[in-house]
Every structure is written in C-alpha cells, then in structure tokens.
Amino acid sequence: MPTIHVDGDRRTHKFKCSAKGCKATIQRCLNTKNARSTGNLRKHVKKCWEEDVRTHVMGGILRNGSITAAFEQKGKGKVTYSNQQHTWAETRDEIVCWVAENLRPFQIVKDHGFLKLMKMGRPEYYVPSPATVAQDVHQVFALTCQCIAKMLRVSMHNLLFTTGH
Question: Model-level pTM?
Fold first, then answer.
C-alpha cells in the first residue's frame, strides 16, 4: 500500500517494495502531467520479483490498464464478472481463495459437477490438481503468517498489554 507524502505543494505516493531483502522505495508524483505513469513501478517489479508474480500482477494491469484492478479488494459489494478467461495463475488464485474462504476440501477440483461447470464450453480449460491446490493453500497460509508477524513487529510499540486481577 502506498503512503502519501506532502512536501509543500508537491504530493507523492511512495511505494515500499515488500520483496524479501529489498529496501527500495518507488516514488510517484501526483501533481505532475505523468501522475498516472507506472513506469518506475514496472521497472522495479521486473528487477525484483519472480516471473510468476510479475505475470499475475502485470497481466491484470495489461489486460485492463489499471493497477488498482490488479489489487482490487474482493468482498462484499456489487459482483462483477469479466468476459475474459482466467490465466492458469489466476485460476489457481481463484480456486485457492474459494477453497480457503468456503472451507472446501482440496479434492473438490476433481468433483464431476465442479469439472462440468469449469469446462462447459471449454473442455481444454485448466483445472489444477488437488495436490496443486493443497500446495498453493499451504503457501498462501505461510505467506499470510509472515505478513501478520511483520505487522505485529512493526506495530508492537503501539500495543498496550494489561493484566486483570
């Protein structure tokens, strides 16, 4: 998430890279003619992140031209549907979210009804194996634990602990 900085009449977004070991901060001026430019962010992503991450994030940006669409918050609100088929990475992401949020077993991806829904009109459509879904869910869980631990370390000075008698 970018932070907003104001220095006199100059407003900027500063993006801190969250890649392990990277201390880069990319700045984007908001009150210039190229305020919507993402060139510096793209250059850093190419240098710092692995191919699968770049493909997932940059694919969303290139498909609809919006960096916010790639990081759009999912949840309650109006549901929108795309008319474009998911990439393999997007399919895996969506299935991981669905399985985790709805407490579905990993084996559901081999269910006859699920496969019928997923492959209707597109028999070649990629559906990951239960082992791949399990691996992805475990990886997301581990990364989430790391993010929570990092947030707790950063905000530890703001926490107050009290004991009751």
Answer: 0.49
Give the gyration radius of the chain's Cα atoms: 20
Other Cβ atoms closer than 10 A to 75: 6
User: How does pLDDT run along the chain (165 residues), one tens digit per residue?
Assistant: 567 778 787 778 787 777 777 888 888 777 777 666 777 777 777 777 666 555 655 554 445 444 444 445 455 566 667 777 888 888 999 999 999 988 999 999 999 999 999 998 888 899 999 999 999 999 988 888 888 888 777 766 565 556 665
Q: Is the dihedral of CA 54, 56, 59, 60 positive or negative?
A: negative
**Residues 6 or more apart from 86 whose CB is under 8 A from it?**
94
Half-sphere exposure of 80 (CA within 13 A, CB side): 7
- The CA dihedral of 124, 126, 129, 134, to the nearest 10 degrees, is -170
